[in-house]
Structures are given as structure tokens and as C-alpha cells.
Write a structure and sequence with these properties.
Structural class: alpha+beta
């Protein structure tokens, strides 16, 4: 019997500790709905704050820019409207630089080469694609892309930090029209 006492004591401790555990809260559909509503409100506030930051940056730097409904800011300063416009499915090759609003250079075609992509296929910032669709072969533009149209909450996990606003300079070097 003496040999059994440690085992009985151990079982008793396990049993008693199990009795005192807090019950786990069951997450309901209503809890999830409230959480999602709160996240939506937080995201709206972040978008508003980032747009205010962009407006201040534009004002401080005396930039002339237009804004799209999505929140992209752009200025096409070398406009070749008499050339071919860019459509979804076209392949573009661009010279570019990407800077943060503090002027820190993140990427540029000078170091990485031209960027080439099929418009509408993703693989680049959605704000860049949106701007490219406003341009023509040979155009050059300055873009200010808010985080929700760029790398969002996490950045690119390399040179672009979380919630970064990007200042792109873009020149359409080549346009390869999609076959109809």
C-alpha cells in the first residue's frame, strides 16, 4: 500500500487541478461579427490617417496630383496621349523607383532592371496597376500609393515596412499589346 501512495497522490493532484480550470469561452457567431465590425472600423481609420498623411506630404512638397476613387494619387507629367493607351492584358516594361515618404530609396530599375508585367494579372502593387491603366506608351508619372493599394499591413518583409506609403516614379518604356 505504501508504494501506491505516491501514485494515488499524483492522481488526486491531477484530478483536483482539472476541477479548478476555468471553462473555456465558446466563441459565438455574434462574437465573430463584433470582432469583424471592429476590424473594419480600425481599417477605415488607418486608411483615413494614411490619406491625411499623403495630403500633408503633397502640400509640403508642392506637388500637383490627382486622386482616384480608390485612394491612389498620381501625376502624369510626361503625357503621350497620342500614343497607344494601356489595357488589361497588355505587357508593359517600366523604369521605376520606389521611395518611402522620407525619401528613402527602396527599389529602382537602376539596380534591379526594368519591371515587366502583364497588366491585370497581379504580381505588382494594385495601385501601380491602377496607375498604369491611366497611362500611354512613353508616359512618365509620379504616384503616391497608400498601403491598402501597395504592401498593406506587413510590408514586403524586405525593404518596405509595415503600412508604408510608397512614392513611385514610373516611365513606360515598352508596351506590348495583347493579341485580340
Amino acid at each position: 500500500m505504501r508504494r501506491l501512495i505516491p501514485y494515488i497522490s499524483l492522481l488526486l493532484c491531477i484530478f483536483l487541478s482539472g476541477c479548478h480550470q476555468e471553462k473555456k469561452k465558446i466563441i459565438t457567431a455574434e462574437d465573430i461579427r463584433k470582432y469583424e465590425e471592429r476590424n473594419i472600423e480600425i481599417n477605415k481609420e488607418i486608411v483615413k490617417l494614411k490619406q491625411d498623411t499623403i495630403k500633408q506630404y503633397i502640400s509640403d512638397n508642392n506637388l500637383e496630383m490627382d486622386r482616384t476613387g480608390s485612394g491612389l494619387w498620381y501625376h502624369i507629367y510626361h503625357n503621350c496621349s497620342d500614343t497607344m493607351s494601356i489595357q488589361k492584358g497588355d505587357i508593359v516594361r517600366i523604369a521605376y523607383s520606389v521611395r518611402l515618404l522620407n525619401n528613402k530609396l527602396c527599389y529602382s530599375s537602376d539596380s534591379t532592371g526594368f519591371k515587366e508585367f502583364k497588366v491585370g494579372q497581379g504580381g505588382v502593387e494594385s495601385g501601380l496597376e491602377e496607375a498604369i491603366l491611366l497611362m500611354h506608351q512613353g508616359d512618365s508619372a509620379d504616384l503616391i500609393i497608400p498601403p491598402h493599394l501597395a504592401h498593406g499591413l506587413i510590408g514586403d518583409q524586405n525593404k518596405i515596412p509595415t503600412l508604408a506609403i510608397l512614392h513611385y516614379s514610373v516611365e513606360i518604356k515598352y508596351l506590348f499589346k495583347a493579341k485580340k
